[in-house]
Write a structure and sequence with these properties.
With 72 residues, the protein is mainly beta. The protein has no helices and 4 strands.
């Protein structure tokens, strides 16, 4: 079936940097890109960020957090 998906990037203090994707997807593999910009369209400073991926499926909510390294 289809399930709500939410992908966001946060700094190490937990502050939201940008919502990369918020929508409903079906079963399958998907790819989403983050261009290194914050919610105002500015490039974020180099550093380590957290990418949080959440899926709200029928069997419950699933969430993963991954590190993203930004270098220029």
């Amino acid at each position: 079936g289809r399930a709500p998906v939410h992908i966001e990037v946060r700094d190490l203090a937990g502050r939201l940097v940008r919502t990369v994707y918020a929508g409903v997807d079906g079963v399958g593999e998907f790819s989403r890109e983050w261009n290194g910009q914050d919610g105002n369209g500015q490039l974020v400073p180099p550093g380590i960020y957290l990418c949080r991926i959440g899926v709200d499926a029928e069997r419950g909510k699933s969430e993963q957090v991954h590190l993203v390294h930004v270098v220029y």
